[in-house]
Amino acid sequence: MAYRRQIGTFVGLFALLGGCQIVGSIEPELVLASGDEICGDGVDDDGDGLADCEDPDCGTSLCVPNAPPGWEGPFWVRRSTWDGTSGPACPAGFSGSAHYMSPAPVGCTPCACGDVEGGACAPPKFRCWLSKNCSGDAVNTTIGTVGQCEAPFGQFPLASASCRIIGPGAVQSEGACAASGGELTEPQLFQQIVSACELGAKTGCAEGSTCAPPLDPGARICVRSSGGGVCPSGWDGETLTAYAGGQDARTCSACTCTFEGGGCEGGAYRLFDTNNCQATGSGANADPPIDITGEACVDVSTLADSGTFSILALEASVYTGACTSAGGTPSGAVLLEGAVKYCCR
Prior knowledge:
Layout: E1 3-5, E2 30-32, E3 62-65, E4 72-81, E5 96-103, E6 112-113, E7 120-121, E8 125-129, E9 138-140, E10 149-150, E11 162-167, E12 171-173, E13 179-180, E14 190-198, E15 209-212, E16 221-225, E17 238-248, E18 251-252, E19 256-265, E20 268-272, E21 290-292, E22 298-299, E23 310-315, E24 318-326, E25 330-331, E26 334-344
């Protein structure tokens, strides 16, 4: 008594591509005897001296005409999603060849910009006055680097003094952002593979025909030709066009980052009661340092006594800005090669 075993799952055979309309689905099954006779592989698998369509265990197999002159086959055709690397998928005992369908569209990953890097600023602009409220006679500092010390008033005794930041530091180097993205979203050339499994058995069928395993409704046995043309009589049920391969002419334009709004902000100074920017002075009149971090006026008269007073650039201004990405534009397509026409019963 024959029983059925699923040898492979066939997906839908036919879709619209390149003007060829393909419809239907394939889910073939091989009919096996209790001794595992594989119907259609040309081998007496169950050892009863009968192979394929000769074997009563394959009573539901089909005898299909051989391919006419100029055509190859017949083949048991299977169409499925392609992972970009695997070859044709055929049941055990069947050899196969592959063609490809559904060229992968050109798509690009989005462009993006990294953090701003490489930008640097000098310490902020700084000014002191011989008053308690940042008015009257003023003295600008000339500090250009962090850690530089300056005594702007020299060795003159002062009754009062006040200071503040008057502007951001100068840009010492421009920043930039690294670009990323702009890669093909589907690096493989095709999305589907057509597995054409050869039917090698002729036993049990009249001359000029080949034994083929039974197929579920909607499945097809096909012949093929690289020359195209009109499908032979009896093989004009459904058609599809597949390809031996292709050349990748898909591209993504380079991603770029445009830097905008570069500038400096912030920064800080530290003021001392000595002329050498030391935290401790000599004598009873030494006062603790005072930090200035903004543009508000700070009365530092307590430090401007005994004729000593110094300024240390504590922090440089922070470099700011942002980048805008561009590029990653898709163009081109897969250049198809080796068109093959399948004509199915």
